[in-house]
Amino acid sequence: MTARQRSDAAGDPDDAGFSMIEVMVTMTIMSIMMVIFTGAILQIYRTSTATESLATAQSQLRVAFQRFDRELRYASWVAEPGRVGTAWYVEFAGPADAGCFQLRLETDPGGGNASDGSGVLQLLRWTPGSPPAAGTPGQTIASQIRTTDVEPFFDLQPIDDEPYASASANAVGTDFVAAFQRLRIRLTTEVAAGTAQIDTTFTALNTIRDRVATNACSEGRPHP
Questions:
Q1: Confidence band (pLDDT; 50, 70, 90) for 49?
Q2: What is the pLDDT of residues 152-190, one digit of tens each?
Q3: How do residues 1-18 score in pLDDT, each as one tens digit?
């Protein structure tokens, strides 16, 4: 056998392939890169989901504000808010034949499994004389309401009330006297990405000073 034949039989050192150590190092580097890449994708997904949840919560409160403004602006009577069981209630009468309305904030919709951010705000409507049965679900207009905020969530300011009288003497509007019933609503929705809040006082422009404190629409509130 010639020297050339012996060299061909032994093989070219450049064609010997990869060693086991080289393969292991390559696989380790690829695994690390995959972990980093997967983590980045998951973080983007979580951020996107949280942002979408916050946007949904903000949208719900915006719609709720528009609904409150439309319904409460022309109310002819607003009840004193109160709590029965795990829910907060406030009833109000619409103008003329608009019927009765009730805002109900259920702080424990799961029945004993309440957690912060689990409250649900619903709106019920009925014809006077035909109140909804206790527990009747209404139209959900906001969810994920934070229930550990300072209560009450609904605060009625009666006619002749001076809501800003306790403000600084130099503040503007300290001598303001309410000519109509006013309902302050304070709600905060809480999701992983943050919170959205509504703290607004709505004026019932059809309320009058000599109207009696009770109304047929008070029948919609369950008894303790």
A1: low
A2: 899 999 888 887 777 666 666 678 888 899 999 988 887
A3: 555 555 555 555 555 567
Q: How many CB atoms lie within 10 A of CB 71?
A: 19
Angle (CA) 7 9 13, round 5°: 65
Amino acid at site 182: R
Asked if the bond preceding 152 is cis, omega within 30° of 0, the reply is yes
Percent of the chain whose pLDDT exceeds 90: 19
Domain coordinates in residue numbering, the chain: 49-220
**Nearest CA among 117, 104, 120 for reference residue 54:** 117
